[in-house]
Amino acid sequence: METRYTHSPEDIRHYSTEQLRKEFLVESIFVPGEVRLTYTHNDRMIFGGVTPTDKPLTIELSTELGVTYFLERRELGVINIGGPGSIVIEGTEEPMKKQDGYYIGKETKDLQFKSEDPSNPAKFYTVSVPAHHKYPNVKISIDKIEPMVTGDSATLNHRSIYQYIHPNVCQSCQLQMGYTILTPGSAWNTMPCHTHERRMETYLYFDMKEDTRVFHFMGKPDETKHLVIANEQAAISPSWSIHTGVGSSDYTFIWAMCGENITYNDMDMVPMKELK
């Protein structure tokens, strides 16, 4: 597990491209047969990929977190973006096809991740945040979510937002997590852009072709910077930063948030004329 520390807007003002990528971009997430996690001190979120092949994988962390097992004081969200697999929770196995998600509550001790076919492994994207209360574990399928359709094809931002871990779907302490799919022909996500001082966010971009890229914008509204992101890479977005992106072709992304509240629309919109 790699640790990333927090930064103020003043810190990044003079960052080079290399420095910006080192601090805010996670380039390697899904490695066959491995668990790859990043621990950001922005609201102490842990996120990354679990990619089992010929044997189950578990998340085993204690020294870094000062606990005896991973979810002793945390909750966890999972979405599979790869081949078919399963999650074994306290001895009960649940199948997980692509786009299936799971909310797993605090104090869950026994957790294993499996793939049906090692040559087409499941890719479990996992996000964990501190939790104060144990809520029930809930399996969440994209087929049972009524998407929130927003944006417009005229502004190239028509998209469907699937809220997996959200008060409309299941209870959580502070984790929110979802899946956004852009309509063919649209390229912008979260535009007009916004900030939300009360929570941070991470973005995983995927379902991209090898030679395509997403330009993920960050920074203060009047001092924007960008990260060029390839398939299955993620960006850390602090609470003070805008987060919006545009792709050279179609793409999908998973967003995950934590912080002061779980009100999805608690955000501060940024007028286009204020962007610089």
TrEMBL record:
CDD domains: cupin_KduI_C (cd20491), cupin_KduI_N (cd20294)
Biological process according to GO: D-galacturonate catabolic process; D-glucuronate catabolic process; pectin catabolic process
Cofactor binding mode and count: Binds 1 zinc ion per subunit.
Leader peptide range in chain numbering: none
A GO molecular-function descriptor: zinc ion binding
Enzyme Commission (EC) number: 5.3.1.17
Biological pathway: Glycan metabolism; pectin degradation; 2-dehydro-3-deoxy-D-gluconate from pectin: step 4/5
Catalytic reaction annotation: 5-dehydro-4-deoxy-D-glucuronate = 3-deoxy-D-glycero-2,5-hexodiulosonate
Pfam families: KduI
Record's keyword terms, sorted: Isomerase, Metal-binding, Zinc
Domain of life: Bacteria
Binding site for Zn(2+): 194, 196, 201, 243
InterPro entries according to UniProt: KduI, KduI/IolB_isomerase, KduI_N, RmlC-like_jellyroll, RmlC_Cupin_sf
Cofactor(s) the protein needs: Zn(2+)
HAMAP family tied to this protein: KduI
Family: Belongs to the KduI family.
Function: Catalyzes the isomerization of 5-dehydro-4-deoxy-D-glucuronate to 3-deoxy-D-glycero-2,5-hexodiulosonate.
Protein name: 4-deoxy-L-threo-5-hexosulose-uronate ketol-isomerase
Annotated source species: Neobacillus niacini
